[in-house]
Amino acid sequence: MRKVIRKVGALVAASALVTLAAPVAPANAHGEAAQEGWLRMGTVAFWDVEINGQPMGEAAVEVPVNGEFTVTGTVKVLETWPEQLEEPELGFISIVAPGPPVIIKERLVNGKPTPHSIQIEKGAVYNFEILLAGRRVSTGNGWHIHPIFAIHKAGSLIGPGNYVKVTGNDGDFKHEVALKSGGTIDLERFGLGPVILFNLIWFTIGMAWMIYWTVPKPTVTRLPVSLSVPLNSDGADAGLITKKDHQFCNASMALVLVILLGAFIWQGQKYPDKLPLQVLRYKPEPVAMDASFATLDADISTYDAEAQALTMTVDITNTGTTDAKITQYITSGDTYLLGDTLAVDNDTIPAGETVTVNLTMTSDRWDTERLVPTQETRPLITGVVRLEDGAGNENFLTASTFLAR
Question: Beta-carbon neighbour count of residue 63 at 10 Å?
Fold first, then answer.
């Protein structure tokens, strides 16, 4: 029996080693399709998201290692925030990428430097500008990155993505910052030696501990014996724990305490100047929006699975003094442009009138991104209708309807 257990253990170990040694394909998505459609559509909406001045989702952007590029855009916390979620009170605008291929050098929200979370509320609009730099050389199409709006107790909601090709050599990357005390350090390599050293120390101690209790001891090879030992017994009667083992435990604990004490004394002398962990949260100043000239009342939505087209019926009232035109429909980071992926039967709403409009958005993303909630308990379609009046003013009207089955 013991030989069988050893052979099975060796086979499992060999299989795990082969699996870990095999190359891993890079991730090409960030799991956004795993989130329910009503969650992505009814929480936040991204629009006018650009990378280096071009709309997200178009041509890949190419930068060298250390080369800078900028992601800008607007995100709104929708009034249709689902009641199943906690009220949005704290958020963090950032970038999501497959690992750390880029770094964030500066982040502005509503024009102010924002390296931290912000206080948010439903209906609020936030303009963001994020300055990044290439860190790791890419392969294939490049690194796929998105802006995200991480909201406390709700998760991270992802905006439109774009490929970024980083060229050059990884070893050329530097992340230099000037110290208040004078001089410059490279954060990419600063303190790397002690980090590697202490990781090796703890790894060695951990491996020694694991090997001691699994190889020469019958804890694994004689599982029936181990399992028969009562919980409050050290197994001395069964030959599991001996006096020598107690001495090994005491010596291991003493070694760990000595290393911790020595490391504490060393870091105090090496780095005498310290800063406490700091948290600064504020509520951004509201974005200056154009005066309201229209209101919207959503009716119903239908989906044509064969044509991959979703039609939303809405009543739009133009309360302004000039005619208004529909230009876009925005949902879950996707933007549908009039004359391209958006078709309407009435694109103009005369001043002072109410017009019933059927908006039809055609895209395979309704299916591939699992946005149509046909199999969900909350069959809601939510988005933002973008209008422009004769004076060039814009309104962004939130529309939420049930999906007709």
Answer: 20
Closest by CA position to 356, among listed 401, 297, 396 = 297
- Dist CA 331 CA 46 (whole Å): 8
- Asked if residues 258 and 250 have their Cβ atoms less than 8 Å apart, the reply is no
> Which helix H or strand E contains 49, and what residues bound it?
strand 44-51
Q: Which residues contact 152 (CB under 8 A, 6 or more apart)?
A: 86, 88, 89, 90, 91, 117
DSSP code for 185: E
List every span in the chain annotated with CATH 2.60.120.570.
32-170
Closest to 393 in 3D by CA, of 351, 333, 341: 351
Alpha helices by DSSP H, listed for 231-351, are 243-270
Res. 319: pLDDT tops 80: yes
pTM: 0.82
Tell me which CATH code domain 32-170 carries. Answer: 2.60.120.570
pLDDT band, residue 29 (cuts 50/70/90): low
The residue ranking higher by pLDDT, 285 or 236, is 285
* Architecture of the domain spanning 294-402: Sandwich (2.60)
Q: Which two tokens stand for residue 389?
A: 């009046």
What's the full length of the chain, in residues?
Answer: 405
DSSP string covering 53-74, please?
Answer: TEETTSSPEEEEBT-EEEEEEE
Question: What contacts 87, CB < 8 A, 6 or more positions away?
Answer: 81, 122
Residue of 24, 56, 83, 69 lying closest to 400 (CA atoms)? 83
